[in-house]
Amino acid sequence: MPPAKPRLLIIGSRGFLGSYAAQAAAPDFEAIEGNRSATGQPGVVIDIRDEDSVKAAFQTVRPDLVMLFSAISDIDRCEQFPDEAKAVNLRGAEYVADAGARCNARLLFISTGAVFDGQKHGYREADPVSPVSVYGQTKVMAEKSVLALGSSAIVVRIALAIGFAPHSATNSLLDSLKKRWASGQVVALPVHEQRNPIDAVTAARFMLELLKKKDAHGIFHVGCTYPITRYDLGLKLAARMGYSDQVTPQMAPIPGRAPRGPDHYLLTHKLQAVSAIPIPTCEQVIERCFNVLA
């Protein structure tokens, strides 16, 4: 009889990244989906804003491993509603980390390049954090809580995740761009913001690989090998979808929006040292958005 698969609770499995992780986890894990409301899928209802809901879900599932994707990732919404952002991104993460620690479950927490101010080119995991937005601030505080409550915990920072969402109502950049381009819009994208993106398929593979490695813990940066401006990335994506003439440069930040760091190039040397999966190039990341087998 084969050994039992580790029980993995994926919180936010209907979101953009979480849905890819849920699909990729099936071969090696007993994956249990956790979401705020019943979805018709096997799983458990969990609202990370409610400590009792979190405790009840953990008591029901008794997971060995946990991946926390649920968050308010809309940076402008976080800036507009800071209390809501803190309730979900900070206190929700604390409730999950505490419940995981109580049942000795290992936690992987999704964070962001927005923990940095973007004033240097290339950030390592040990570089001092310096967020300029409410979103970044909530993630910094959540990282500290997660790492303090579990010595085996993993924090994965991503500067920009791209791909098409398997489910509706997610914060998918490609779905948003495709919708706007298909309606005939010309989309302005910033020339002054650099990121090293990662496609959702490869991001999920990296995260699940880290969970399998018992000696992997702490912070890991996940992204492609080099950075690209959001404008240049948009040009490549538009060309791939047949909308090459519908991208225009945005030369300065838009007034009234949340501040964003200009350069969130996350260096991936630490990940590269422990992973059997090659760090992809930007071209590979883009292609994998359109062909998951690439």
Overview of this protein structure:
The chain is α/β, with parallel strands linked by helices and 294 residues long. The protein has a single domain (7-170, 197-226, 264-284), classed as NAD(P)-binding Rossmann-like Domain (Rossmann fold), CATH 3.40.50.720. Helices cover 39% and strands 18% of the residues. The protein contains ten helices and 14 strands. The protein has helices at residues 16-25, 51-61, 75-80, 82-102, 134-149, 173-182, 200-212, 230-241, 269-274, 282-290, and strands at residues 7-11, 30-35, 43-45, 65-68, 106-112, 154-158, 161-162, 187-190, 194-195, 198-199, 218-222, 228-229, 247-250, 263-264. Strands 3-2-1-4-5-6-11 form a seven-stranded parallel beta sheet, sandwiched between helices. Strands 12-9-14 form a three-stranded mixed beta sheet. A two-stranded parallel sheet has the order 7-10. α1 links the parallel β1 (7-11) and β2 (30-35). α2 packs parallel to α4 (82-102). The longest helix is centred in the N-terminal third of the chain and has 21 residues, at 82-102. The protein is globular and about 55 Å long. The mean pLDDT is 93.
Task: Furnish the topology, listing elements before pairings.
Elements (H helix, E strand, L loop, with lengths): L6 E5 L4 H10 L4 E6 L7 E3 L5 H11 L3 E4 L6 H6 L1 H21 L3 E7 L21 H16 L4 E5 L2 E2 L10 H10 L4 E4 L3 E2 L2 E2 H13 L5 E5 L5 E2 H12 L5 E4 L12 E2 L4 H6 L7 H9 L4
Parallel strand pairs: 1-2, 1-4, 2-3, 4-5, 5-6, 6-11, 7-10, 8-13, 9-14
Antiparallel strand pairs: 9-12
Helix pairs in contact: 1-7, 2-4, 4-5
